[in-house]
Amino acid sequence: MRFDRPTPLRKQVYDYLRELLISGRLKAGEFVNQAELMAKLDVSRTPLRDSLMQLEAEGFVSIIPCKGVVVNPLTRDVIRNIYQISGALEAAAFEMVFPMVGELELKRMEEIIERTEALIAEGDYSRCHENNLAFHEVALNLCDNAELLRILRSNRERLYHFPIWATRELSSESADLSLWEREYWVQHRRLLALFARGTAREVADYVRYVHWAFEEVERPIISFYCLDEGTGEQNAEPADKLLPKDG
User: Fold this and answer.
1) Could you tell me which of 101, 76, 67 has the C-alpha nearest to residue 203?
2) Domain that holds residue 209
3) What is the CB-side half-sphere exposure of residue 54 using CA atoms within 13 A?
């Protein structure tokens, strides 16, 4: 396999590794065969090492001295920690940009909510993730704290890009998940109202203690991330197959 040279080699290797992780071809607990990857990609150790170091900084892998590089699992505890960190960071960002959110931003948020509500009403949850990111980015794009945004987006990447039998759709069989999405977009409505008529502190508190509250959504998170309820580790089967059917 050869890469197109106009794009920096490190980025191409990084993107390739990310795709292996997202698709599940590199599984949690597995060691990365660096020699095999260098041969397959026809690259030297340097761009591969740099890419793996970036993935470690993002939490996807761990580099263990004298052993190698292992793919990190996405466990209940890891997800809880990411929720707590992300809630605090996004609350800080939203509080900072609150005075800058004007009619244009409110209109964009409203349009995103309306599009998503229409899809959900038809039982289509396929765009919820994309629209959720777009909604939050309307306000985050006003924030000039580059370091805060870097950490927040890196944590968000850790949550949203993981081996999860990726394109499976929510359906009536995924009761926990569909209910979660519907309630989640009710929260977006509340956030919009607070941006329009509330205070900066109210927006920050709602984001941190409601919108990013792990305890309130632990059950659908277990289902969505295919976690074992006892161990908190990811299962080897899609969550929809593991959940008991009603009746």
Assistant:
1) 101
2) 76-242
3) 18
